[in-house]
Amino acid sequence: MNKIKTFEDACIALGISAAIPDFSNTPEKHQKAFIAHYQLVIINQALNEGWEPNWGDWSEYKYYAWFDFEKGSDKSSGFGFSYGVWTLSSATTDVGSRLCYKSSELAKYAGQQFLELYKDYFVIA
Questions:
Q1: pTM assigned to the model
Q2: Residue in 39, 11, 62 with CA at minimum distance from that of residue 3
Q3: Looking at the domain assignment, is residue 2 inside a domain?
């Protein structure tokens, strides 16, 4: 966690370019979300240090940053990290599997450190 504070840090850790793919052929109102999703996937990969969820293993816990629209510090949207994480301990999910973490600490860190990216991804502005 100490090494990954930005998208660029995640790219350095993975040894990849920090160039953002071209989303100009997608609807303009969704481009910000596509860019945020791309960045969050790369950040997730770097934070998880090679760990990938095993969706066939019901005993393996998977952790997610959890957000709500009431406790946020951004008064315009109310979107904020809920100061907890959601744990998935079965092979079913209600949230995207690409953004799960191997520990609750990583999920909490990602939700707080990259709140603006999560907001860009989840909130239609």
A1: 0.82
A2: 11
A3: no
- Domain assignment present for residue 22? The answer is no
Residue 66 lies in a domain: yes
Domain residue limits at 88? 7-17+28-122
Q: Report the distance separating Cα 58 and Cα 74, nearest Å.
A: 37
Phi (first) and psi of residue 120, to 5 degrees: -60, -35
What is the bridge-based pairing of β-strands 80-88 and 62-68? Answer: antiparallel
Instruction: For residues 125 and 96, give the distance between their C-alpha atoms in angstroms, rounded to a whole number.
Output: 20
Q: Please provide the size of the chain in residues.
A: 125
pLDDT digits (tens, 9 = 90+) for 61-117: 888 888 776 654 554 556 666 655 555 444 444 555 779 999 999 999 999 999 999
102: phi then psi, degrees, rounded to nearest 5 = -80, -10
Token pair recorded at residue 66 = 């959890």
DSSP structural state of residue 55: T
